[in-house]
Amino acid sequence: MGNDASRDATAATAPHPDFQLVQSSSEFRTLRKSHRSFVFPIAGAFLLWYFMYVLLADYAHDFMSIKVAGNINLGLILGLLQFVTTFGITAWYVSHANRKLDPAAESIRTEIEHHDFDNGTAAATGADAEGSTR
After folding, report:
1. Which of 34, 59, 70, 113 is deepest in the core (most CB within 10 A)?
2. How far apart are CA 55 and CA 32, in angstroms?
């Protein structure tokens, strides 16, 4: 509340990164490609697996009713495997992100924070000059 004016004044004088320049950089394109090449195939495979389960449950009653042990049938096992698959994919994605995506994203973020993608260097120089004269 009381600090809003000082924060707004600082934000107005601080240089803003040129996000189009960031998005057109080779580092960002590589990061986006790495993310998409993992997420899209895995999401597609999981959706295929999920819809297969739904269709089997709806149209293959005899198959899903096959007893495995006692009152446990194939439908119950496949349904529980949906949860196992979800947790497995999540763990796999976290591992992939920690190894490949996060280091690349951290590098891009560091470049942005060090004003390598400033929207004009004159604004940064002017802000530094004003700050040093005060």
Report:
1. 34
2. 34
pLDDT at 114: 80
Q: Exposed, middle or buried by CB within 10 Å (0-12, 13-18, 19+), for 21?
A: middle
3-state SS record for the chain = CCCHHHHHHHHHHCCCECHHHHHCCHHHHHHHHHHHHHHHHHHHHHHHHHHHHHHHHHHCHHHHCCEEECCEEHHHHHHHHHHHHHHHHHHHHHHHHHHHHHHHHHHHHHHHHCCCCECCHHHHHHHHHHHHHC
Domain residue ranges of the chain, discontinuous segments joined by +: 17-116
Distance, CA of 67 to CA of 70 (rounded, Å):
7
- pLDDT means per 10 residues, the chain with 134 residues, are 56 68 87 95 97 96 95 96 97 96 91 69 43 43
Residues 17, 119: contact at Cβ < 8 Å?
yes
